[in-house]
Write the structure tokens for this entry.
Amino acid sequence: MSIHPELFMPELFQILLLLVLLFQSISKLETFRNDASWVPWGAAVGIGVAFFSLHVQGTMFHGVYSVDATSQFFKLAVSIGFFIGTLNATRQPTLEREKETDYFLFLAFSALGLMFLASSVELITIYIALEISSYSLYAIIPVRAKDRKAAEAGIKYILFGAIATAISLYGLGFILAGQHSSYLSELASADWTWASNPLAVVGLSLFLAGMFYKLALFPFHFWCPDVYEGASNETAAYVATLPKLGAVVVLVRLAALVQPGMAVTMIFAVLGAVSMTIGNLAALAQTDVKRMLGYSSVSHAGYIMLGLVAGTADGLASAAFYSLVYILMNLTCFWVVCKTAQDGENIALKDLNGLSRRAPVMALVLAVAAFALVGLPPTAGFTGKLFLFTSAWNHGYNWFVIVAAVNAAISIYYYLSLVRHAYTAEEEGPEESPHIPVSAMSRVWGSVLAAAILLLGMVPGPVFDLASLAGQHLLP
């Protein structure tokens, strides 16, 4: 078995980052052990490593680990999300300083698992990588200064995760029994119809449960709003974004196995339509911003299904592109939540009243993120939805596109309510709502994120071309 280090440089760099954090965590020098302020800048270097590895290709470990256009695109996306997530998580008000290094260690471990997941092309390897990315999150979700809701969120995440894992393993057994292989390259030429191989179809549907859980797709979405609400703002920002990249890359690879009109593809479409509808309707009733974003993520999981059911390279490219856009939009929204929350507490809609006067830069950043989540031009959210809608149209799922368009209209109400509260709602007591102390660097990075959303919306070509390479690799 030949190993070529140049094929997995992003993973090697992430492992190096992990080893440094591990050494720092067990160090006896207190000043060294408790100083993790360098981690975001190490993560920034990781973006460069992932970028320069974009065009590397090859297979390793007896064909279970593939380095291709798909994996490298998602590794770059994970690196970007990890950088923003760690930058957002520095100096958390609800995290004791002595736990900061361990906290970043778990985040880095989760990101490494997602990178493994991006290159996994064999079902058992996919399962192991998924668990690597999940275990660390089980540890950090309850960490919120002895908050009972955080403990409840941790328990729910573990219980739902255990159920999803068990169902996935059960489905894996069915796939092995029905198709006699766990390699995606061999499964691509297999029969996935109810008539000839119902056992395999049932197995694939069950195996996807683990991915649906990570993506917060109906009916595996119940944990999502509760975990977002209970976890610290910074942890919720990470859980709401990066794990979804891992789910999307696996779903993109598995979607290449089936064609439009097949039973499994129809399951994708139905679950996607139900997920976006339930997510949007539930979000309308929320007053806690993080719970609203939780149900919002349920609806966005449905939008991603549009690209997966199209059965074309453009569809898979659109799903990959939208997943990157989604983490950028959501992390920007959470950036405002984290930087304007007093003492790390949850933010309700009423707490945003007068934000344009108390923190004008953050109010503008929030407005850009909200417009993008709605899908208004010229933001990246509009471009991403446009790519998804056009990729699924005239491929047998026009009804799905219509449902998605209606749901996009429904989402206008609760997304723009964020802007309404920030700019037009009257403060209940102006004299009791002082200026929010947001650091200059927080304002700068928030502005950078907002600018990235606008730039990606107006000039999506270079990034979408990278996503197209990933789609063409799977469906030429």
About this structure: The chain has a mean pLDDT of 81. Strands lie at 58-60, 65-67. The CA atoms of residues 95 and 244 lie 24 Å apart.
